[in-house]
């Protein structure tokens, strides 16, 4: 899975350990997940920066969040076989269908980074995560998850869903948009960002949490 | 300022160029800012991970956002002398007091990364940003900016400000808290997170945008 022999085995054991399997938090993967999340963000950020030399920063930011979002990372982790390797409380049937495997993947990136350094981690992420599991062309065509997901839920449940521009302000000469997610005519949540697209994604994301649709 | 001779000068010129000074977006520092933000996040993430081997992931996340938040980075950039080096529309008096210098700093980190690689950038960030300008002990004691700032505004304007727990849900066995920022008894904004502290910070941050207090 790694493409190289691990140096520090203990590190990888921690990376694979969900907190449901350990009493002490230092033995679970949450700290490594924090580290791996940051390292993965940098590596994917660099990758996209170089792959799309003529795209704006807004475009790169959106592409990155399509790659490193929770759902996507969890799907990749399962395809990589990390579900079987993750050590967790298997009597908790909730965890089985949850998104803890994406966290394992982030923790694994953190472990590789501590074990082998940045450049090796970059190679690992390119060869073992991005190349086999991310179809950039397809990703470019896809809207971000949150809005899609919310539309899917609305369709299935016979609700109307609209995104409405609630406000436009100016900050530092930059426009700030507030977009609301409106379900059956009722304002559920709103999001603020420097463009309408991001603002509506934030609104959708908050609405998903609000409505308990996070799985 | 860098501690080493730059290799690729053109890169640094782009890093110092605010979009108000350039017609083409590729000549301004926004793409480098995107890259530098990600690299800085990784380097600071790594730094805190190693500095605080017994702290939880929540603590590390909070400390990181205290370091890499917009206000803090802008303050550091000005102390480093980046205000004078930033190329921007100086007839725009708004930009002079704005936080575009923090963006220059992020873009500079991006330029160093492209010019010299990760390890050199790490040294640059440690020696030229963290060591001289970040007092970790003081930072540990400080509450995050957003709530403080909002309290400051409320005091100055004779408003009452309260943070109220609006809801508590369970997702993946993890609790999600919704905390509202209540000004003079009126709910202004809310935030969701896995702990009350973070949720109230998000609520405060959204309220600051909502109330137009972003400077």
UniProtKB/TrEMBL annotation, chains A, B:
Q: What class of enzyme is it?
A: hydrolase
Molecular function per GO: double-stranded RNA binding; metal ion binding; ribonuclease III activity; rRNA binding
Pfam families named among the record's database cross-references: dsrm, Ribonucleas_3_3
Q: What is its main location?
A: cytoplasm
According to its UniProt record, which cofactors does this protein need? Mg(2+)
InterPro entries, per database record: dsRBD_dom, RNase_III, RNase_III_dom, RNase_III_sf
Report TM segments: none
- Does the keyword rRNA-binding belong to this entry? yes
Residues of the RNase III domain: 1-117
Instruction: State the reactions this protein catalyses.
Output: Endonucleolytic cleavage to 5'-phosphomonoester
- Record: residues binding Mg(2+): 33, 103, 106
Which terms are listed as keywords in the entry? Cytoplasm, Endonuclease, Hydrolase, Magnesium, Metal-binding, mRNA processing, Nuclease, RNA-binding, rRNA processing, rRNA-binding, tRNA processing
Domain DRBM: start-end pairs: 145-213
Give the E.C. number(s): 3.1.26.3
NCBIfam families reported in the protein's UniProt record: RNaseIII
Subunit composition and interactions: Homodimer.
Family named by the database record = Belongs to the ribonuclease III family.
Q: What is this protein called?
A: Ribonuclease 3
UniProt organism field: Chitinophaga terrae (ex Kim and Jung 2007)
* Organismal lineage: Bacteria, Pseudomonadati, Bacteroidota, Chitinophagia, Chitinophagales
């Amino acid at each position: 899975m790694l493409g190289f022999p691990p140096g520090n085995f203990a590190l990888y054991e921690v990376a694979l350990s969900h907190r449901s399997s350990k009493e002490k938090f230092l033995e679970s993967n949450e700290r490594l997940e924090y580290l791996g999340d940051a390292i993965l963000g940098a590596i994917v950020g660099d990758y996209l920066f170089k792959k799309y030399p003529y795209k704006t920063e807004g475009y790169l930011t959106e592409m990155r969040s399509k790659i490193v979002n929770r759902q996507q990372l969890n799907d990749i982790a399962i395809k990589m076989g990390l579900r079987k390797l993750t050590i967790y409380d298997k009597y908790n049937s909730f965890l089985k269908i949850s998104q803890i495997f994406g966290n394992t993947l982030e923790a694994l990136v953190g472990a590789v980074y501590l074990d082998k350094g940045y450049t090796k981690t970059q190679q690992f992420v390119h060869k073992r995560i991005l190349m086999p599991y991310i179809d950039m062309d397809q990703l470019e065509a896809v809207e971000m998850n949150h809005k899609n997901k919310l539309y899917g839920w609305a369709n299935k449940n016979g609700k109307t869903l609209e995104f409405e521009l609630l406000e436009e302000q100016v900050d530092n000469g930059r426009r700030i948009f507030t977009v609301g997610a409106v379900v059956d005519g009722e304002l559920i949540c709103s999001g603020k960002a420097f463009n309408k697209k991001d603002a509506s994604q934030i609104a959708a994301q908050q609405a998903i949490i609000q409505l308990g649709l996070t799985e």
